[in-house]
Amino acid sequence: MTATLSPAECYQHQYYMSRAIELAKKGRFTTRPNPSVGCVIVKDNQIIGEGFHYQAGQPHAEVFALRQAYERYAKHLQGATAYVTLEPCSHHGRTPPCADALIQAGISRVVIAVVDPNPKVDGGGIAKLQRAGVEVITGICEQAAYQLNEGFFKVMRGGLPFVRLKIATSLDGRTAMANGESKWITSDQSREDVQRLRAQAGAIITGSETILQDHPALNIRSQQLGVNLDDIPQPLLVVLDRRQRIKMTDAWYQSQINKRPVLLIQDATMSLTQLLTSLKDNYQIHDVLVEAGATVAASFLQQGLVDELVVYQAPCFLGNSAKPMINFTAQHIHQQIIASLVSHETMETDIKLTYRFDK
Ligand code: AOF
Ligand code: ZN
Question: Exposed, middle or buried: residue 191 (CB in 10 Å: 0-12, 13-18, 19+)?
Fold first, then answer.
């Protein structure tokens, strides 16, 4: 829908939308299960209001931006343009519809990056604005806005939660010594980065072997996430325990359930697809982080359930008796699992490699 815009208009819209995307990112660890959304209000080529959604239940991005615009510019917003990274909502949820708030404020034009696929909205916000005579432009910085909330879009469009698999490995593809020792192969910066992955996830999935071997905390504890730690919901910890080796009376289990939600999967008949379906339907989870051993990692990969693989590779060799990063067997080259590298970054002594899988 940008076809009729001149290059100069396109550039202008992209400029302000980029700012709205930056604002949206400020909520990326705290809005779950809601999407991260940013909004900028522009009048006479000046930003007069900025806002972003911070937590579910709190006002949406548009409301914060309008409040700031009112404060700075009185109530005369005629002629102003609102840039929003997601279509303004049209439903009465935990908060009233943002489309109504924009109309009542007298906003003349709304520029939207991406349509909200939530069935409660899904074009309803755009229709409402247009009926009220507000000009609507969509599709500005669409890809970047989509990337803000990949899990939300995937689930709202009928898919399973977005699955990210994280593996910390040596140069020879090993994750720990045979006796379980693994602290620490990767750098401080890599481990700090994992805190970001956890803070974006509604659930962390691990296996009973990892729990019994390492007693890991698998929680968010970093003070460097740019937001108050108390505002970040601890992800649901999902433990795959088909052999029923973990007991509710275990010290580890007791220590966890006092601090965060834990889901123990002891039903051997439940498939990973059924688990992911249940996480989205019953727990409103859109993003999952798999932090597990080689067997669980292989199951997710072989079943084609991984959207993104993040590998932190440390500059060491652990040798042949150390544990492999992935546990699967293949006889023929056509049985290989192929990933596509999308980015690489250094993390002190390590490299962070991010891969996607063709679906
Ligand atoms: C917007 N602006 O900043 C956000 C939107 O329960 P509620 O009332 O918070 O509504 C949540 C839904 O609203 C969410 O699933 C998504 O469709 C939309 N999020 N919409 O206009 C915002 N965060
Ligand atoms: Zn809204």
Answer: middle
CA of 103 from ligand 1 middle (Å) equals 17
| CB 113, CB 142: distance < 8 Å | yes
Mutate to test the pocket of ligand 1, among 25, 28, 41, 60 (most ligand atoms within 8 A of CB): 60
pLDDT band at 274 (very low <50, low <70, confident <90, very high): very high
Residue 359's CB is within 10 A of a number of other CB atoms, namely: 7
Per-residue pLDDT of 75-122, as tens digits, reads: 679 999 999 999 999 999 888 999 999 999 999 999 999 999 999 999
Distance 282 CA to ligand 2 centre (A): 23
Burial of 157-168, coded b for 16+ CB within 10 Å and e otherwise, reads eeebbbbbbbbb
Ligand nearest to the CA of 148: 1
Q: Whose CA is nearest to atom 10 of ligand 1?
A: 93
Ligand 2 center from residue 302 Cα (angstroms): 39
Q: Which residue is it, tokens 């937001």?
A: 227
ipTM metric = 0.94
Nearest CA to ligand 1 atom 14: 34
- For ligand 1, what atom is nearest to the CA of residue 33? 15
State how far the Cα of 18 lies from the Cα of 85, in Å rounded to an integer.
9
How far apart are the C-alpha atoms of 297 and 278, rounded to whole Å?
19
Q: Is 62 a catalytic residue?
A: yes
Residues 6+ apart with CB under 8 A from 206: 216, 218, 237, 238, 239, 240, 290, 291, 292, 296
Closest by CA to 197, choosing from 290, 280, 259, is 290
Helices (H), 83-214: 98-105, 124-131, 142-148, 150-156, 188-199, 208-214
Q: Are 114 and 85 in contact (CB under 8 A)?
A: yes
Pocket of ligand 1 (CB under 6 A): 34-35, 37, 53, 56, 60-62, 86, 88-89, 93-95, 98, 116, 118, 121
What's the pLDDT tens digit per position in 9-48? 999 999 999 999 999 999 999 999 999 999 999 999 999 9
